Amino acid sequence: MEKNNEDARSPSTDKKELGLEDDLAHSSRGNIVDVDDPDAGLSDEEKADIDRKLLWKLDLKLIPWLSLLYLVSFLDRTNIGNAKIVGLQEDLNMTNGQYNASLTIFFVSYAVLEPLTNILLKKLRPSIFIPIIMFLWGVCMTCMGLVHNYSGLMAARWFLGVAEAGLFPGVGYFLSCWYRRCEFGIRMAIFFSAAAVAGSFGGLLAAAIAEMDGIGGKRGWEWIFILEGLATIVIGVASFWAVHDFPDEAKFLTEDDRKRVIRRLAADKQSSAEHEEFKMDYFWASLKDWKTYTSAVIYMGCDGSLYAFSLFVPTIINELVSYSSTTAQLLSVPPYAVAAVLTIAVGYIADRTRQRGICNMAVSLIGIAGFCMLLGSQKASVKYAGTFLGAMGIYPAISNTISWASNNTEGVYKRGVTLGFVIGWGNLQGCVVSNIYRGDDKPEFYPGHGVVLGYLLLFQLGGTITQYILLRMENRRRLRGERDSWVEGLDAKQAEKRGDLRPDFIYTL
């Protein structure tokens, strides 16, 4: 949290505000645990051991499968870049503008629907909602391998965006309802690192599948879509048994473990610990919160850069030297692998230091340096090194920004709506960046690299600095007692419902 303000509060107050204690005797809602604590009477060491085992159980049940789902999701939305360099555009007789339009249309449906999907996720339950949308986007993906013209590809990409819209904001929201704020970042980073792995794995997979060119009368790019779509359908069906529900409904928890999860969330001052009915008040509360907009600006910077990079890196590498398409696919692997490792490292560091803003600033500078290299050098080796730095500056900021927004938004539905808006606005940038790398600009791609550099500099870095300063100012006001009037005359339960507007809720920096 805010280390510079430690002198402004006592150690006991600091411990409570940071949510570092699991003992609800120090929580504003301690009555929940005092009434029915499965670990009452145990020593602190015994409680800590039980807590570690519970956390490990949650990690094993939730993280691996959800990460696999996002790997598949990102692979399916970006494999069109791999398909392009093995003949997609030529076989469908598309102009450069039409190809870019086929990228753009995905982001229109994808971004517009995202703010609504978290409400549907909560209403239908994750174990129902996520498998259904996976099955549907697997069907859309398979159909992309069966199209014969530009119109067919456009229709398939539109519905792919509709079906995929619920996964990323849904999982981010879902995981935030299981973990404390100081634990969420590393889990979100591991989950999102699947996107970098997808970029790496996608290049290898596309290179292998493209060798099926001519089998069954199908081109290599058609087989990329068909086989990856069928795999998505299979994984979607399996998800009916592998995806779990929220803590109050998850079947893999014992009754005692359920109470422990709720206790941990309550100690962290999270309303996720309780069942909450949807009201439009939560929707409007999100829209009135300035953090929704600053987070959206930051996410706009990193997400716009992400899609530009992931959609076009095979083409960029292919233009550096006269590589074969297969070699270009393989050379796109290492930048993604390095980005995946750094994403997890940043998630761990941000959780431990509670300095998510500083972490965002640091990786932003790395990404800015990478795209300066792509813009300023004519040497293939320097440009290839620039793709490494570009990936390292973009991927860690995605999960870190979502964790930052989630940490500072309290209330089950308010957080869900906020994440939907933030992620939806970020993904809408795909409509812009899918048109900035034009065939006419190769091999330098100056306009494309320049736009991404602007996104990183103005939105990702500039937005991070702005939000960081504003959060520090607000924390100081709360520590000085200037916000105490917000809960005057309210009882403990009413004050608690104020969520992140409670004066004792200290924002993560």
- Principal-axis shape equals globular
Low-confidence stretches: 1-35
Helix content: over 70%
Number of helices: 21
CATH class: Mainly Alpha
CATH architecture: Up-down Bundle
User: Terminal Cα separation, in Å?
Assistant: 6 Å
- What is the C-alpha radius of gyration, as a whole number of Å? 23 Å
Integer tally of domains? 1
CATH superfamily: MFS general substrate transporter like domains
User: Would you count the extended β strands for me?
Assistant: 0
Give the integer mean of the pLDDT values. Answer: 82
**What name does the CATH topology carry?**
Growth Hormone, Chain: A
Structural class: mainly alpha
Largest sheet: none
Q: What fraction of the residues are assigned to beta strands by DSSP? A: under 5%
SSE run: HHHHHHHHHHHHHHHHHHHHH
